[in-house]
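## retry 2 of 3
previous attempt timed out at serialization; input unchanged, resubmitting
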Amino acid sequence: MNHYPRMTELARTFPTLQNADGLDPFEPSRLAKWLRGPAPCHAAIHAGRFLLHLFNSRARYNVGNFQVADAFATWDHKHRDAFIAWCVAPWWP
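## retry succeeded, writing output
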């Protein structure tokens, strides 16, 4: 059972996370392992970092920290739109 369906829903708005492990059900440790490799593209890494930061900003997942400027420099418009949609109506798990 997915105890964090909103996290899964949000993750699915990022195109490069469609096949990521640890999304359905949302399991941060599995997502972090997927982000560590074999390395997905940089856009996916930034999207995953955002999700992990949102889920628990104090946890250490060993995937690097989410940095908005770095993410925007890497993301295409679909990724930026997904992040901006969350910014317009933010929520926390």
